[in-house]
Amino acid sequence: MPKRADYITWDEYFMGIAVLSAKRSKDPNTQVGACIVNSNNRIMSVGYNGFPTGCDDDEFPWERTGEKLHTKYPYVCHAELNAILNNRGASLENCRLYVTLFPCNECAKAIIQCGIKEVFYISDKYAESSETIASKKMLRAAGVAINKIKPKSETMILSFKEEDM
Q: DSSP assignment, residue 47?
């Protein structure tokens, strides 16, 4: 019997992990997930956007507008940074980052500093923002490859039904 032909690629698999990680975010507007992978296709870490450990997400604001200290922006930790911090100390040199939303300039700094050499993303909806423009400038200057994922399919269904296993 020949092997199955409709299996997903490594890129689709790791981006799928990032998409699934984003589902853990409690942000009512933007859910972002990230997955860091080494050269042997081993997952080093995952993360999603949310408040730092110990900061109660029922006590801190989720608003997008208003006085800055009354919005989520000074408090939320982005998915990329969470994935880097969740790694717990293993080297991320030459790793790849799969992230659902193109990294901001602050995350780009962390990506560069920890040695990640390739970024894969789905959405670049803030491409015209100064943060994203700065991010791309820094990533390119540091030799970090930037790749937009083009999956074979726009959707993938997860089933928890026993008969589907």
A: E
pTM summary value: 0.93
Tally the C-alpha atoms within 13 A of residue 60's C-alpha that lie toward its C-beta.
Answer: 21
For 73-131, what is each residue's pLDDT tens digit? Answer: 999 999 999 999 999 889 999 999 999 999 999 999 999 999 999 999 999 999 999 99
Compute the distance between CA of residue 44 and CA of residue 63 in angstroms, rounded to an integer: 32
Cβ burial 80-97 (10 Å sphere, 16+ → b, else e) = bbbbbeebeeeebeebbb
Alpha carbon 121 to its chain centroid, in Å, reads 8
Q: Which amino acid is at 79?
A: A
State the catalytic residues.
80
User: Which candidate, 123, 151, 164, 156, places its Cα nearest to that of 20?
Assistant: 156
CB atoms within 10 A of CB 69: 9
Angle between helices 130-141 and 105-114 in degrees, nearest 10: 20
In order, the DSSP letters of 77-142 are BPHHHHHHHHTTT---TT-EEEEEE---HHHHHHHHHHT--EEEEEE-TTTTSHHHHHHHHHHHHT
Handedness of CA 51, 56, 61, 63 (dihedral sign): positive
- Residue 5: other Cβ atoms inside 10 A: 5
Among candidates 139, 90, 76, which has minimal Cα distance to 111? Answer: 139
